[in-house]
Design goal:
Keywords: Signal. The protein is of the alpha+beta class. The protein has a domain of 53 residues: Nuclear Transport Factor 2, Chain: A (Roll). Strands 1-2-3 form a 3-stranded antiparallel β-sheet, with no helix packed on it. The relative contact order is 0.16.
């Protein structure tokens, strides 16, 4: 009798181990979406930058230590993947693009 209870308990645990991941995988209420990385290789000087790079929290505070020139009025340096972009904060236009030297 004790042996049958152990087998039944193991069967229940094994079924939970299979069912739980499937239930989680099929959760339609998932609200977190991973943003796709920006492909900076397709952006050129004069193009509009994505709006997120006009925000002040994206500005590089240590632009001088990175060897970048002083940003013009209403512009800021931002890092996009393996490049630095100088973005006008008013209209979002890309003013300069510099590769990150490693």
């Amino acid at each position: 009798m004790l042996h049958q209870k152990k087998l039944a308990a193991m069967a229940v645990l094994a079924s939970l181990a299979v069912v739980c991941p499937m239930v989680l995988a099929a959760d339609p209420l998932q609200t977190i979406v991973q943003a796709a990385p920006i492909n900076a290789r397709n952006l050129q000087v004069g193009d509009p930058a994505p709006d997120v790079y006009k925000r002040s929290d994206k500005a590089l505070a240590d632009w001088k230590n990175r060897g970048l020139k002083t940003p013009q009025s209403q512009s800021q340096w931002v890092q996009v993947n393996d490049k630095y972009m100088l973005v006008h904060t008013g209209n979002g236009q890309i003013l300069a693009i510099m590769p990150i030297e490693r």
